[in-house]
Amino acid sequence: MCKLNKALYGLKQASRQWNKEFTQFLTSNDFLKSKNDYSLFTKGELQSGTFLAVLVYVDDVLITREDEEGIKNLKNKLHHAFTIKDLGLMRYFLGIEVSRTTEGTTLHQRKYIFDILQDIGFSACKPASSPLPTNLKLSTDTGALISNPAQYRRLIGRFLYLSITRPDVSYAVQHLSQFLSALREPHMAAALHL
Fold first, then answer.
1. pLDDT per residue as tens digits for the range 35-63
2. Which residue, of 84, 89, 107, 162, has the greatest Cβ tally within 10 A?
3. Residues 166, 169, 170, 174: is their CA dihedral positive or negative?
């Protein structure tokens, strides 16, 4: 029998132990865990200008606050406790690209869209004027069954994630999601149009 003194990468419980350790660190520094999203931690009040938000995804951490000093203080504490690597201002996170200009901040998924197009062999396709063809009427019993339903389901799943930054496709994705159990060729054609 061996006793493990330290959680190591590759072990089943390593990610759980990391989350437990990181959560304990943040809560001991007066952060509150959100009841709606367990990966979001907040500290301070928005009205007073002392609000600090930390968003955690596995070992990637986003920190935001109005002033740089509060962010630097937290980074120093994190570095002292865990030895972190500061990647600077956010440019790319979970498939979402962040562009900053003098007019504001824009979130987009341009690379993600190109990856989808390349995966389905539509790299050289021309854009459509609308997410779905006009006068489209889909049903569960019209058209031949498709041979590879996993491809359709994967495509719809990717579209669901895309709708984070593209609300204009939300209705089309929701409509195509209704046919996941009885997939037919018109459904696939509409998905490829999207």
1. 999 999 999 887 777 899 999 988 788 99
2. 162
3. negative
Q: What is the pTM of this model?
A: 0.71
Question: Quick one: what percent of the chain has pLDDT higher than 70?
Answer: 97
Cα–Cα–Cα angle for 20, 26, 32, rounded to 5 degrees: 105
Q: Which amino acid is at 54?
A: V
pLDDT at 35: 93
**Cα–Cα distance for residue pair 56/1, rounded to 1 Å:** 34
* Integer Cα distance of 84 and 94 in angstroms: 19
Tokens linked to 79: 């570095």
